[in-house]
Amino acid sequence: MAKEVTSRAENYSQWYNNLVVKADLAENSAVRGCMVIKPYGYAIWEKMQHELDRMFKETGHSNAYFPLFIPKSFLSKEAEHVEGFAKECAVVTHHRLMNNPDGPGVVVDPSARLEEELIVRPTSETIIWNTYKNWIKSWRDLPILCNQWANVVRWEMRTRLFLRTAEFLWQEGHTAHATEQEAMEETEKMVNIYADFARNFMAMPVVIGHKSAHERFAGAVDTMCIEAMMQDGKALQAGTSHFLGQNFAKAFDVKYANKDGQLEYVWATSWGVSTRLMGALIMAHGDDNGLVLPPKLAPIQVVMVPIFKSDEEMSNILAKMREIADSLKSRGISYKIDDRDNLRPGFKFSEWELKGVPVRIAIGPRDLENGVVELSRRDELTKESVPQEGLADRIAALLDEIQNNIYAKALAFRDRNIIKVDTWEEFKERIVQGGFLSCHWDGTEETEERIKEETKATIRCIPIDTAVCEEEGKCIYTGRPSHRRVLFAISY
Amino acid sequence: MAKEVTSRAENYSQWYNNLVVKADLAENSAVRGCMVIKPYGYAIWEKMQHELDRMFKETGHSNAYFPLFIPKSFLSKEAEHVEGFAKECAVVTHHRLMNNPDGPGVVVDPSARLEEELIVRPTSETIIWNTYKNWIKSWRDLPILCNQWANVVRWEMRTRLFLRTAEFLWQEGHTAHATEQEAMEETEKMVNIYADFARNFMAMPVVIGHKSAHERFAGAVDTMCIEAMMQDGKALQAGTSHFLGQNFAKAFDVKYANKDGQLEYVWATSWGVSTRLMGALIMAHGDDNGLVLPPKLAPIQVVMVPIFKSDEEMSNILAKMREIADSLKSRGISYKIDDRDNLRPGFKFSEWELKGVPVRIAIGPRDLENGVVELSRRDELTKESVPQEGLADRIAALLDEIQNNIYAKALAFRDRNIIKVDTWEEFKERIVQGGFLSCHWDGTEETEERIKEETKATIRCIPIDTAVCEEEGKCIYTGRPSHRRVLFAISY
Questions:
Q1: Of A95, A216, A395, B453, which sits most exposed with the smallest number of CB within 10 A?
Q2: How far is A104 from chain B (nearest CA, A)?
Q3: CA geometry: angle at B197 spanning B180 and B46, to 5°?
Q4: Taking every annotated instance into account, which residue ranges of this chain make up the domain Aminoacyl-transfer RNA synthetases class-II family profile (chains A, B) (predicted)?
């Protein structure tokens, strides 16, 4: 390998940390819990943004931008919301520094204290609903379908690159509706868009479901989510969509005049995915050689590595590669010719494997003579000699095949590891091995808490797929009657 | 008018404020100095971002993301930098709130005080150069060409929507180079990209030049800029590109091994444009009826307003409009059919004029019969009856014509208002009327300060166009010898 990465079997967690850093995706910064997203990592995030943004716009949403800061008093207006966020927020108290009167450097100017402290947004429901109040007068002003791409800050004590950082990037949709029905439909529509995106672009199967009351977003009436399974069998919540009822409308007094001229409170949703998806992407598909990127999100889909001894060989091979590059470009396939002259081909192979580039082309002098190239696929680590003729078409088809294959592998793994469990003994035994355990639950928060205390497992979701889950049974923990199975897992 | 806007002649400043709010671009938020960018305004910003991002990538730059927070001690490392930013920054001192022990609401938890305060980035040179330190070992690691799209905060005391806000959105490029020459070339390349963007997309002529030492970015060796002229004759600095020399490399000890293995300090540039460009766009082209958007940045290029009395008329006209819409769509022209049934056509006309939509199509029952439409252009407020046949081609050509016409008008206005002035009496008389005064200056900061004190005018730039500016003369204020003219103006 170009750079040493711990194997998954040895230490999955270490493998992940290694990969993020060594594949040049991100690194820790000098600021506790805040990460630097490096160009290669950011290029993947941009591809995610591009597709999601398109999907949002196709469903009628517009982007807007709301302030980074939230007045402290706003947070308190929705009781559960403040409960959920007050303990982990960055607080701005002053607006000026001054020269240190007692030595070098600068200190906070005590005379520049803010009248009211400002919170760096952990999420924007409060500032947005305070704004919507002025935008909404009548039913004609509804629905409002806004999305915001932004940074948010939650002061997490234990952070991990992409998975849990103090600052992260995300999008947050905030919609306002005239009816409960319409807001509920929006909540479902958006969780379905997230699921589509996860499946079709990230090649990552997900389970769509509702959170239990205990795991809901602070201030939501219902939280829907997509849950993905990582290769260690742990769950990763990859996106959430909240039906907020009239909670924020009531907290910020947002009413509209209906068609009969009567004032009613507005109904709300909010929904978001974040740079956490980068963590999911890495953990869902990576192997011991590095990242495995689905072609649809790979910043470089094809890398070309020349193999040569003399300058003449190099220039002939590079000429051929530029020809291939043109044919790839005309098909919208992204590529890179790795013409660095100070590194051996084997080193380059390892580096591009580490970075997860889906397809590699190598050409040596004999390949050039024979009109062939060596074509390798990252997902299966296989290679074959193929004709230069028709190469771009072959690669276009191969990229599709890789995209599908990565999904199929993840789906097979996931399905193998969703297991129906009906006894508490089996639950305790299996949960430590990872996977989603499909079990009956008595529906009480108390039982949920007990199970978490004893096993660290939480209810990841109550799946919407009733065909699979709805059946009569007995709670795995208390034996009380239950009408449907839910999914338990240990999560990120 | 659909919504009352003060005329430019009456009060230009009020006209601007009205327009921003009434055209639904942005509004003040509940947080002092922070704005809400509304969907229509954000859609224009997105178009700007899209073009700039493409131009950056075409010239080899990649996007990345660096932390929102900067440790207080970092700011102090570059002496001039901290001088420039310490007095206007938001300071995070705590990381937790708690329930108010003395009443309702939440208060800052005194036990959650940060060891070192964090500054919300006013610009990112310090955190980025602290990061680059670990990325750069040898000449092979250079150049680094990163850009970041981000929010920044500068605690301005007097704010105006888009022009001067506490929080604003921008991009900041930060590059690292092996040689002084290369960094200087990068500085120039980027200011030229900004100028191209201003001219070709914003339809806004700019003067490219260098800032005087006094007006330089805090920490730069040289600051280049583009200066645009607003309709009141004031200058607006629309973008800056800084040659930072080795200042930040020295402050953060960033060295690279050159080809001979010797350690040298790295050379730097940084460059940025912000949501301030939105202010420039509005003020450069708007008229008393509202915004005038250049077609290349208009979220809606063509609006269609049906004129009807009966439901049948409406449905026939809308059918025709959908047909036209398809032909526009196939040419990549954006459109909106305004089918609201509760507003009169005249009201709609005014509203879309206010919003600056470049082209309007109106169709009434008689137009439908005669196979024509009424086609209006926003820039000239003229209309004509034209055949439905070949309409999309005609509109495509018209959009180009409007784009060019808007630029030509702004250019003619700008050129009329760049005036050579050679006596102090004339300077004082003319400067209050607006415009750029091209004058000789003795090159001293003292003279610059005096002129500012007496007239509020500053040196906007020392233009790079030597053909126009290089000539011998005498300083307008002191009479001392001068080798070139510089541009003075009162600025936003």
A1: B453
A2: 9
A3: 115
A4: 27-294
Q: How far is B122 from chain A (nearest CA, A)?
A: 12
Closest residue, chain A, to B71 (C-alpha): A31
- The rounded Cα A420 to chain-centroid distance in angstroms is 27
State the Cα–Cα distance between residues B54 and B2, nearest whole angstrom.
37
Rounded CA separation B195/B465 (Å): 13
SS3 B286: coil
Residues of A in contact with B167 (CB under 8 A): 67-69
**Euclidean distance between CA atoms B208 and B261, whole angstroms:** 38
Mutate to test the interface with B, among A38, A69, A132, A278 (most CBs of B within 10 A): A69
Q: What is the rounded distance in angstroms from the CA atom of residue A354 to the CA atom of residue A378?
A: 10
Please list the pLDDT of chain B residue by residue as tens digits (492 residues): 446 789 999 999 999 999 999 999 999 999 999 999 999 999 999 999 999 999 999 999 999 999 999 999 999 898 888 888 988 999 999 999 999 999 888 999 999 999 999 999 999 999 999 999 999 999 999 999 999 999 999 998 899 999 999 999 999 999 999 999 999 999 999 999 999 999 999 999 999 999 999 999 999 999 999 999 999 999 999 999 999 999 999 999 999 999 999 999 999 999 999 999 999 999 999 999 999 999 999 999 999 999 999 999 999 999 999 999 999 999 999 999 999 999 999 999 999 999 999 999 999 999 999 999 999 999 999 999 999 999 999 999 999 999 999 999 999 999 999 999 999 999 999 999 999 999 999 999 999 999 999 999 999 999 999 887 889 999 999 999 999 999 999 999
- A161 close to A117: Cβ distance less than 8 angstroms: no
Beta strands in B9-120 (DSSP E): 26-28, 35-37, 62-63, 69-71, 91-94, 97-99, 106-108, 113-120
Nearest to B89 by CA among B63, B116, B119, B117: B119
Instruction: Tell me the chain B residues in contact with residue A86 when contact means C-beta distances shorter than 8 Å.
Output: 96-99, 106
Extract the tokens encoding B352.
């879309």
Work out the minimum CA distance from B84 to partner chain A, whole angstroms.
Answer: 11
Angstrom distance (rounded) from CA A200 to CA B427: 65
**CB burial class (10 A; 0-12, 13-18, 19+) of residue A257?**
middle
Rounded distance between C-alpha atoms, residue A356 and residue A349, angstroms: 11
How far does B328 lie from chain A, in Å, by closest CA? Answer: 18
**Neighboring chain A residues of B88 at a CB cutoff of 8 Å:** 95-96
Q: List, in sequence order, the alpha helices (H) in B155-221.
A: 180-200
The ipTM is 0.97
Select from A43, A76, A117 the Cβ nearest to the Cβ of B108: A117
How far does A297 lie from chain B, in Å, by closest CA?
16
Taking CA atoms, what residue in B is nearest to A62?
Answer: B39
- Residue A420: other Cβ atoms inside 10 A: 12
Which residues from B are below 8 Å from A88, CB to CB? 95-96
Structure tokens given for A188:
């479902």
A24 is written with which tokens? 């040049």
Of B66, B88, B98, the CB nearest to A96: B88
Q: What are the CA-CA distances from residue A400 to residues A35, A287, A301 (Å)?
A: 33, 20, 11
Q: In angstroms, what separates the C-alpha of B74 from chain A's closest C-alpha?
A: 9
A contacts of B97 (beta carbons < 8 Å): 72, 75, 82, 86-87, 89, 91, 119
Total-model pTM: 0.97
Cα B258 to chain center, whole Å? 38
Q: What distance, in Å, lies between the first and last C-alpha atoms of chain A?
A: 28
Is residue B427 classed exposed, middle or buried when 0-12, 13-18 and 19+ CB atoms within 10 A define those classes? Answer: buried
Q: Which residues of B touch A53 (CB under 8 A)?
A: none
Contacts of B252 in chain A (CB under 8 A): none
Tokens found for residue A201: 């672009």
